[in-house]
Amino acid sequence: MALLEVHNVTKDFGGLRANSDISFTMEKGELLGLIGPNGAGKTTLFNCISGLHPLSSGRILFESEDITELKAHEVARRGLARTFQVYVASGDLNVEENVMVGCFMRTRSRIRAKARAAEILEFLNLQELSAYLVSELPVAAQKRVTMATALGSDPKLLLLDEVAAGLNPSEIEEILASIKHVHYELGVTVMLIEHVMELVMKISDRVIVLDSGQKIAEGNPEEIAGNPDVIKAYLGERYVKEHGGEL
Amino acid sequence: MEAIKDALDFSDFPRVDLTIAIAVLIFLFIFPLLPLSAFAMATMIQFLMFSIYGMGWNTIGGYGGQVDLGKAQYVGIGAYTTAVMLIRWDLPFWLSMPVGVCLAVGWSFIIGYPLFRLKGHYFAIATIATSLVLKALFEVWDFVGAARGLEISPIKYRPPDFWRLIFKEDVYYYYVILGFFLIGILYMNWFRKSRLGFQLRSIKDNEDVARSLGIKVRWAKVKTYAIATAFVSVVGSFHACYIKAIEPEDTMSLDISILIALMAMLGGAGSLWGPIIGAGILIPLKSYLKEWLGATAGLVGIDLIIYAMIIMLVSAFEPKGIWGIVEKIRRRKRK
Predict the structure, then answer these.
(1) What domains sit in chain B, N to C, each tagged with a CATH number?
(2) pLDDT digits over B53-71, tens only?
(3) How close is the nearest chain A Cα to the Cα of B228, in Å?
(4) How far apart are the CA of B16 and the nearest CA of chain A, in angstroms?
(5) Ordered domains of chain A (ranges, CATH)
(6) What is the pTM of this model?
(7) What is the pLDDT of residue B300?
(8) Interface size between A and B, measured as CB pairs under 8 A
(9) With an 8 Å Cβ cutoff, are B217 and A153 in contact?
């Protein structure tokens, strides 16, 4: 049984079609990568799935139930958590408190929320940072905190929006390890948006490619790497002609 | 159970804070025993009242980051409910105060639900508008005395009347409001650690993030707005018995709303001690300015000029007020 089914999702902003007739399904336990050049509509698709944007048309099912019309907080309560690309922290909450906000989705008790937050922070190796304000941390740590916060709500499906953007290679390795850790040890199904193609290719079971709001390819990483449409989308027509379609 | 424990547990504050807090508390308890003027006593009662107003405002304005400049309408609802019930039906304070809270909270839901569609400055302006509209209504409503207001005549009752809260000496009022003040602190100490408290701070950070963490943003705001309203309404009821003469102009005017917001903003929005610090600075300032300047030199508006300057300074330099400065210094020391 599919965990997430996206049927013909279209999203218009005025005259701009950000997502056009996108369909795919995700099985439980999968690690799916969503790639595409800037402006391909990846984040819009995330916003549609997580209920922040109403769809223009199409349907989204989560655990075979229709969540198309649900509001963002209701979608979250069903077990679909997400991170945000640009995390704007006014600096009021420290790391531990941030994760606790996530945990409070499942409990009213502060003691239980605190205990759960401590577990998650330890799991992601963030326990030493727990007293810092998020705004005081380097970007790489901030990204891991957003992951921890999303995990606080005990999600079944975790959508990660560009967690590797702006990181250096060693930090990317680190976050990659965190994602794998969450995926394999906690058994969370993960979908990640990524710019850094290399990262997606390395860890995804399956990859979906968007370009100009349309799904142009879907398959395992090797298939995607050899797909001429994908290379065209990323590198342009000329590169394909000159190099014979190999990445 | 956990809630009561949280309300009584101040252990996450450093020892300095607690020492100062206890010293202030002892001072507050023995204050009436000191040989001070009636003016000092009146100022002290005002300080406690505005601390509680500020604590209420701090829930939605401080923790939730929703700048509310219309709290005076709920002072009015509380005050008028108590005054009307006492004058017309001889119903005592302890009965009219909860009724006032219910009316104020009910009104806050009616106002709050549509208002929280707005954000930022638009929300602030809308709260001012609703408050002024209610004031204008009270000014023409004969049942509540229209613009003349209502007067509670103390001659009818035999003070000290604890049931109706009619006293001759201010010291009784002082201890009653001190009791409310302490309950307010305990409530706020629970609130800041409660789920709602955390959710509000998350909403203040980023509403989309809050939503995706399962928080019903508008409902959380409306609920908190109602909590803030309850605080304000209780003190409004007290105000009616204490001042004994209420009229729309002095219970529901815009400067009351601004002053309420200013307590927490100056002291430190979103902190437990902030509103108390703010009230501790602003209320004596206000009283003495009125005493020294207002009456003599025709400088009636000078307190308003000072408030305006404080708002500008706080928002330009330290949005988290005096407490924000203290916390910054502490953070720097720890590193």
Answers:
(1) 2-334 (1.10.3470)
(2) 999 999 999 999 999 999 9
(3) 20
(4) 20
(5) 2-243 (3.40.50.300)
(6) 0.90
(7) 66
(8) 82
(9) no
